[in-house]
Design a protein that fits this description.
single chain; Nucleotidyltransferase, domain 5; 15 helices; Ribosomal Protein L25, Chain P; Actin, Chain A, domain 4; six-stranded mixed β-sheet; 4 domains; 34 strands; alpha+beta; 30% strand
Length: 704
Amino acid sequence: MSEGSGIPPPGKPPAGKRTAIGLQIRLPCASIAELKGRYADDLRRGSFFIRTKSPRPDGTLIRLDAQLSSGELAFRAVGVVTGETEGGMRLQFLGADEVGRRLIAELGGKPPPALKTEAPHPPAPAPAAKPVRPEEPKRPPPVMSQAEPKPAAPQAAALPAQKPAQSGASGPMIGIDLGTTNSAAAVVRDGKPFVIPSREGYNTIPSIVAATDKGKLIVGHPAKGQLLINPVNTVYGAKRLIGRQFDSPIVHDLIGRFPYRIVPGASGEAAVQLGDQQYSLQQISALVLTEVKSIAEQWLKTPVTRAVITVPAYYNDNQRQAVREAGDLAGLHVERIVNEPTAAALAFGHGRQLRQRVLVYDLGGGTFDASILELNENVYEVVSSGGDNFLGGVDFDKQIVDHLLRVFRERNGVDFPPDRVALQRVTDAAERAKIALSEQLETKINVPFVALIDDKPYDLNATLLRAELVSLTGDLVDRTLTVCSEILAARGFGPSDIDEVLLVGGQSRMPLVRERIRHRFTREPSKAVHPDEAVALGAALLAHSMDSPDTGSVVLIDVLPMSIGVGLPGGRFRKIVERNTALPHTKTLSIATTRDGQTELEVVVFQGESDKAQENEYLGTLAIPGLTKRPRGAHEFEIVFFLSAEALLTITAEDKRTGRRIAASFSTRDTPEEVRARLGSAKAEAGTGMLKWFKRLFGREQRV
C-alpha cells in the first residue's frame, strides 16, 4: 500500500478542519472482473479492508484510489475508518465514483452517494519497490437467515396498497420530516431548498390518522378536524409508539395518556384499534407518509418514489427499522434515515462553508434531542448526542391540562368526568393557551359545556398567566438542559466551547426555553433556522447531495445514540458498542459452547444505558440452533455487530473452525417477559456453565 504525499503521521486526527487523507493502494488484480471476484463480499457491504502496518484511528476520513496491478485506476472512494487491527484497517465507504457505485450495485449491495465529478485520475507511476499487497480478505460473516421472520400485521382493506419503490428509480428525491405533531416534505430547486406546501396552503400537515363513522381513513388536516368529536378513532403521537413492544413499561405508561385504543399487534408489538380494524404503527406512519408523498407528487407534477426521512437522534434500532418499513409501505424507497438534529445542522450550514461547533436543541411535539456537531465546510460530524423520547410539547400540554382539572375541581367541588371527548376539548384549549402565552403575559381559557354531571352542565373557565406556565413546566425545560449538560460532559466540553445553539421544533419557541438557553450558554440562541422547517429542509439538502453528484457530496458522520449490548445471567446488561461511537462501526465477539453436548447458543441483545437489561430496549435474540453434540469448546463462532451510518444494526455469524455459514436467526418475537424469564433461568444455570460461557464471551471481545 502506498500513501499520498503530505500525510500526517498516524495518531489522533488533527484538530480543526476535517480533511480526508489521500491513500493509493495497488490491488493484486489485473481486471475489474478479477477485482469483483476477489473482493465481492467486502464491496457488497460497501467497505474495504486495507493491509497496513500503520492503521489510522477510528473515524479518520480516507480518500482512496484503488488501482489495478497495471497501475490503472480501478475505482475511487471516500470512507471512514471503522476498525483498526495490527494488520490493517477497515474502511466503510461514505461515497464512491461511478465505477465504485456500479461495482457495489452489481454485487447486490447498496451504492453509497456519488462523489463530486472530477477529472479522471492519471495512472500512477510505477513504484520503486514492490508494493505491499492488500490482505486477502477473510470470508465475511454471513447475514443471519431469518429463520423465524416477524409476521406482518394484517393489511387493512382501507390502507392504500403501495408497490415498494426500487433503488435507482428515476424522479426527484425528497426530504421528509416525519414529526410527532406535524410532518413536512421539502425539495431542492435551483440549488435552494424549500418546503412543499400542503393542499390547504400550510407548510406542514398534522401527523394524524382517523377513521370516520363509515370506516374511511382520513389523514392530515381532515383527521385533525375530527380529533375533538371522535378522539377514540383518531391517532396522533404515533411516533412515540412505533417500533415498541406492547408489553414494555413505556407503552403501558402511554395507554392511559391517549384517547385511542393501544392494543397488542400480531407479533407482540404496539398497535392501534380504529373501529373494528387493527393497524400497526408502521401502517399509521405509512398513511402519513403516503399523504406527504401525494402532496409532493401533486406539486412537483411527477411521481415520487425516493426519500430521505428524518428520525429523532435518540431512536433505537427497532424504531429506525420501523420507520423504514413505513416508508416501504408508502411506496417510498428510503435512501437514508438521518437524525433530526443533523438535518437541522445541514439546513443551518448550507452554502456557508462554516467551521463551527454547534449544539442543536430539538424540542418537538413528542421528543427531545440534543446533538453537538462540528461543521467543517461540507463535513458534518456529530460528536455527541442524547435525548428523551418522552419529552415534548404534549408533556407541556399535559401539565396545563392537569392544572385546569384542578381548577375545575376547586371551583365546582366535583371531579372532572372520565369522558374522552371532554378531555380532548380541554387538551385542545390547553395547547392554544400555551401558544398564546408565547406572545402575551396572560390568556383566558373558556370551554363551554365541557362536562355533564348529574344532568347539570359545567363550563371550564380560567385565566392562565405566563408566570404560572413557567411554574408548571419549568422542570420539563430543566430536563432538556440536563440532557445538554450530559452530552457536553461526554466530550469534555463546556458551554463556552459551543459557537452556536440552534433551536428546532415547535416547543422551542417558548420564551422560557430561550431564556434558560441564554442563561446556560451565556449567548442568544441562533435564529438562522426555522424551528418548524429546518429538519425537512436539511433532509432535502441531503437528498439533493446524494442525487446530484455534480454538486459535490455532503459527508455526514453520526454517532450511536444509545449503547448496544447483551443480557447477562441475573438480568444484568453488558455494553458491546458504547453510546457516541462514531458510525459506521463494526465490533466482533468470539463465543464457544461451554457444556458437553450443548446443542444451541443464544445471545439476547438490548439497547440502552441501564445496568439492568430489563430497563433497556429489547432488540432481539441471536439463536444458533442445531449444533451437533460435541465436547465443550468444540463449537466456536464469530459474532459481528455491524452498525451502518444510519445506526441500523446487522448481526452476522460464522463458524470460526470451518468459515462456513451457520443456520442462525435474529428474532424479535420474544416478549420482554420471556426474555427476563430466560435471563433469570440463566442465573440459575450459572453453576452448570452458563456464567463461564458469559465470562468467556466477554473475555474474548475484540474490535475489527
